[in-house]
Specification:
17% strand, four-stranded mixed sheet, single chain, 2-enoyl-CoA Hydratase, Chain A, domain 1
């Protein structure tokens, strides 16, 4: 199988598992990851997700051999499968942590861009790489990267096809934490466990507002935030949080 999944406590782990192919996205992996995210989307036992890779790469992008092959009759186009995967990942209502264990290139970088929090190994390198093969990005390389890092840095990565270290990209705001390779998985689990204790309802609403805010004026974004707040005030979770504060105990959120 091209990927594996596991539930550790309330944290779902997705591991891209084509190490010989640098975890490049093929049909099987794109379809499997999409289906698993959809299954976890409404599973109350899953409160956060960690996405990582097996081997020396996080993901080297799309499998160019499969991408170039014409689909058989009655088989979905490769690009459609990739688009569905990225749409599902970006719209996933729960926190997603990218645990970047190694090279994240082209589509691999675009996966990182679609995640909420980025933890990276000291050995990780990230780059767009599409220009190296005359391939145009289709999942955020040109559209989203300039929103995540300074525009001149985005252009450098896009135009040169070069990769930058996790430490360099931390200075530009793309990477949240840089860790020793031996510490990456444990730190990702600990952070996901922390998020899993928060109200899933408030995190989903925060994520929705934060994701949509860059496309709105400040006034419209504030109005959206206020509407979400009004809905949230009627929830169980806000009442539970306030009760727990008054009673000096840890809250137990239900996500409703």
């Amino acid at each position: 199988m091209s990927f594996s999944h596991a539930l550790v406590g309330s944290v779902g782990w997705l591991t891209m598992d084509r190490p010989a192919a640098m975890n490049s996205l093929n049909r099987e992996m794109a379809t499997g990851l999409t289906e698993q995210l959809k299954a976890w989307r409404n599973d109350d036992n899953v409160r956060a997700v960690v996405l990582t890779g097996n081997g020396r790469a996080f993901c080297a992008g799309a499998d160019l051999i499969e991408a170039a092959a014409p689909p058989a009759e009655g088989v979905r186009d490769f690009l459609e499968l990739i688009v569905e995967f990225f749409d599902t990942l970006r719209a996933f209502p729960k926190p997603v942590i990218a645990a970047v264990n190694g090279l994240a290139l082209a589509g691999g970088l675009e996966i990182v861009l679609a995640c909420d929090i980025v933890l990276a190994s000291e050995t990780a390198k990230l780059g767009d790489a599409h220009s190296n093969f005359g391939v145009f990005p289709g999942a955020g390389g040109a559209a989203i990267l300039p929103r995540k890092v300074p525009v001149n840095v985005a252009r450098y990565l896009l135009f040169t096809g070069d990769a930058m270290s996790a430490a360099e990209l931390k200075t530009h705001g793309l990477v949240n934490e840089v860790l020793a390779p031996s510490e990456l998985a444990a730190r990702a689990q600990a952070l996901a466990d922390k998020l899993a204790k928060k109200s899933p309802l408030v995190l989903a609403r925060m994520k929705r507002v934060a994701n949509e805010a860059p496309d709105k004026s400040a006034a419209d974004a504030l109005r959206h935030e206020l509407l979400e707040l009004r809905d949230h005030q009627r929830s169980y979770d806000v009442k539970e949080g306030l009760r727990a504060f008054a009673e000096k105990r840890e809250p137990v959120f239900k996500g409703c």
